[in-house]
């Protein structure tokens, strides 16, 4: 692993900003924090650091080994860092998107979403089981192009640091030009929301342009209260349950289902069932859109007289 | 005794997170939520199960939860979880029993647990819960 770890250096800043946000919560929004939720989120962060120490080295060694098969020699220059940062963020977008759309990956990533709160401590709610997924595979193209694994690790560290500050309700909107290009608290609130219109949207890490490019962007609506967490809230602060509940769910579903469906519980989207007893995010959104259409049906569709009128 | 640096870092981080959680407690953050009226219960129900449209609502005397039934006789239980509500559409494994003036609802889900609500019409809800999956 590289000697320089930006995330380790940023930890005092993380703690200071959490403190500041807690004081903001005391003055303006006491429900923005909850002690047991905070403790769970921070314990997630600590555990993920331990998990990273144990397993991160193995992945880094794999990357270094693969680097010998690189196509080009990318130098350690500022422009290479800049290119690496942008491409690493693109890779992050796809890792993240798979993290929401493939239950195997979701079992790990759900940890980050299982709080019903959205504050800076939520940012530190990181998975312990990322090593069980194939997320690392999305970084392989960068290795094979020739970016050194150390450079990629440093860029990924800065990416993670950037994402810390956007986990807050204390900031409303940034300037328009910034909202257009960068991931912001507003965009990321959408990502953490379980309101049907927001499900599986805004996967970006640093640059929101990826969502706009790949059709997954959703703007935050001002007059709709956001509900954070997961579709089926945990209802428990038990740390180990929070860490492993989706892995246990997958195992239970695979054990109970017919042979031909077993693999689908691992590879299909969260919420998918072979007997339709649960709903995927797409199905929840489609049902919500149907309800919206039926409540917003214009009078003219039912009343021929009204249909003939014109606006004044 | 020399402790390994990684262990010192771990113990320091553990102390820091306990201190931050303690501070959140000391600042009295995270008040328990209350359901003020049926509209609040409807909103919480829709948040717990998108599209759940209750035809019967019974809110706990202190607003610490509610039972709601929809036109398909599905029963939704709401109870506080931290400063929010966590809801469950009850399955046929759920049960309900009177306990003094309260109704104790067991979801049969170990981590979610049981809930004790004081409702105006507990017998009707016992029937509704016993009837789940029976039709």
List keywords for this structure.
heterodimer, A: about 300 residues, 15 helices, globular, disordered C terminus, B: about 140 residues, alpha+beta, four-stranded antiparallel sheet, 3 helices, elongated
**Class from helix and strand fractions of chain B:** alpha+beta
Report the span from N to C terminus of chain A. Answer: 70 Å
Q: How many strand segments of chain B?
A: 7
Structural Rg of chain A: 22 Å
Query: What sort of overall outline of chain B do the alpha carbons produce when their principal axes are compared?
Result: elongated
Q: Looking at the structure, what is the overall shape of chain A?
A: globular
Largest sheet of chain B: 4 strands, antiparallel
Number of helices of chain A: 15
Q: State the share of residues found in helices of chain B, binned by percent.
A: 25-40%
Biggest sheet features of chain A: none
Oligomer: heterodimer
Q: What average pLDDT do the residues of chain B reach?
A: 93
Instruction: Report the mean per-residue pLDDT of chain A as an integer.
Output: 93
Provide a quick synopsis of the model.
The complex is a heterodimer of chains A (312) and B (135). Chain A has 312 residues and is mainly α.
Description:
The complex is a heterodimer of chains A (312) and B (135). Chain A has 15 helices and no strands. Chain A has 312 residues and is mostly helical. Helix content of chain B is 31%, strand content 28%. With 135 residues, chain B is an alpha+beta fold. The longest helix of chain B has 22 residues, at 5-26. Chain B is built from three helices and seven strands, in the order ααβββββββα. Chain B has helices at residues 5-26, 38-48, 122-130, and strands spanning 54-59, 66-70, 75-81, 84-89, 95-99, 102-106, 114-117. Chains A and B meet through helix 1, helix 2 and helix 14 of A and helix 1 and strand 4 of B.
């Amino acid at each position: 692993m590289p000697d320089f770890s930006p995330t380790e250096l940023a930890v005092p800043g993380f703690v200071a900003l959490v403190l500041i946000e807690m004081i903001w919560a005391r003055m303006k929004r006491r429900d923005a924090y909850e002690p047991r939720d905070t403790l769970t989120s921070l314990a997630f962060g600590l555990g993920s650091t331990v998990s990273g120490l144990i397993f991160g080295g193995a992945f880094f060694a794999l990357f270094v080994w693969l680097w010998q098969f690189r196509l080009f020699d990318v130098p350690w220059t500022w422009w290479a860092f800049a290119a690496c940062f942008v491409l690493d963020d693109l890779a992050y977008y796809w890792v993240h998107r798979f993290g929401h759309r493939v239950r195997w990956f979701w079992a790990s990533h759900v940890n980050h979403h299982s709080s019903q709160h959205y504050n800076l401590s939520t940012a530190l709610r990181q998975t312990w089981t990322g090593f069980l997924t194939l997320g690392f595979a999305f970084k392989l193209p960068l290795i094979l192009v020739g970016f050194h694994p150390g450079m990629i690790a440093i860029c990924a560290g800065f990416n993670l640091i950037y994402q810390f500050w956007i986990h807050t309700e204390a900031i409303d909107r940034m300037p328009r030009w910034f909202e257009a290009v960068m991931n912001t608290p507003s965009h990321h609130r959408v990502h953490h929301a379980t309101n049907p219109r927001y499900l599986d949207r805004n996967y970006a890490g640093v640059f929101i342009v990826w969502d706009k490019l790949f059709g997954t962007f959703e703007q935050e609506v001002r007059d709709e209260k956001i509900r954070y967490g997961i579709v089926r809230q945990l209802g428990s602060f038990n740390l180990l349950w929070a860490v492993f509940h989706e892995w246990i769910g997958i195992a239970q579903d695979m054990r109970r289902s017919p042979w031909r469906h077993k693999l689908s519980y691992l590879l299909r989207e969260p919420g998918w069932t072979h007997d339709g007893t649960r709903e995927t995010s797409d199905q929840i959104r489609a049902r919500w859109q149907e309800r919206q259409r039926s409540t917003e049906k214009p009078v003219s569709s039912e009343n021929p007289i009204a249909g003939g009128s014109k606006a004044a | 005794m020399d402790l390994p640096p990684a262990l010192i870092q771990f113990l320091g981080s553990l102390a820091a997170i306990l201190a931050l959680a303690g501070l959140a407690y000391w600042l009295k953050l995270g008040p328990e939520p209350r359901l003020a009226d049926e509209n609040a219960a409807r909103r919480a129900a829709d948040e717990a199960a998108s599209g759940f449209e209750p035809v019967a609502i019974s809110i706990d005397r202190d607003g610490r939860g509610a039972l709601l039934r929809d036109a398909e006789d599905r029963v939704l239980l709401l109870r506080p979880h931290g400063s929010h509500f966590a809801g469950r559409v009850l399955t046929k494994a759920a049960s309900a029993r009177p306990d003094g003036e309260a109704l104790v609802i067991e979801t049969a889900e170990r981590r979610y647990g049981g809930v004790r609500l004081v409702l105006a019409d507990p017998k009707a809800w016992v029937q509704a819960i016993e009837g789940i999956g029976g039709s």
